Amino acid sequence: RVKETAQKDIKAVAKESVQKLKATSPVGKGKQKGRYASGWTSKKDGDGMIVYNRTDAGLTHLWEYGHNLRQGGRWGGSPHIKDVEEWAKVELPKRVQEDLESWHDVF
Asked: Would you tell me how many other CB atoms lie within 10 Å of the CB of residue 14?
């Protein structure tokens, strides 16, 4: 029962992480505007979940940390993944702890 509780929390945090990434990701320009932001999803991996960008996985590093421009200069990036990652690292243990404590109170 503890494992099921933890898996439920893992799935919920992954789903919320996807929503946060879709909301905070850069949109871009041109006819594929919004493609990167809408590409965030999650999938089951063993007992955990992986949050990833299914449409433009190769762009995550460039959007997060920036890149050189063709005409010279540098675009500084738009940090959005790190913020969600930090939130998930704090939120998941907190939720599991709360669920286990509420479960413990029943008995």
From this structure: 21
Q: Exposed, middle or buried by CB within 10 Å (0-12, 13-18, 19+), for 97?
A: exposed
Model confidence, pTM: 0.85
Q: 48-84: per-residue pLDDT in tens? A: 999 999 999 888 998 899 999 999 999 888 899 999 9
Do 23 and 80 touch, CB atoms closer than 8 A? Answer: no
Which residue type occupies 47?
D
Query: What does the alpha-carbon distance between residue 51 and residue 42 come to, in Å, rounded to a whole number?
Result: 4
Other beta carbons within 10 angstroms of residue 9's beta carbon come to 20
User: Who contacts 76 (Cβ-Cβ below 8 Å, separation ≥6)?
Assistant: 66
User: What is the pairing mode between strands 48-53 and 67-68?
Assistant: unpaired
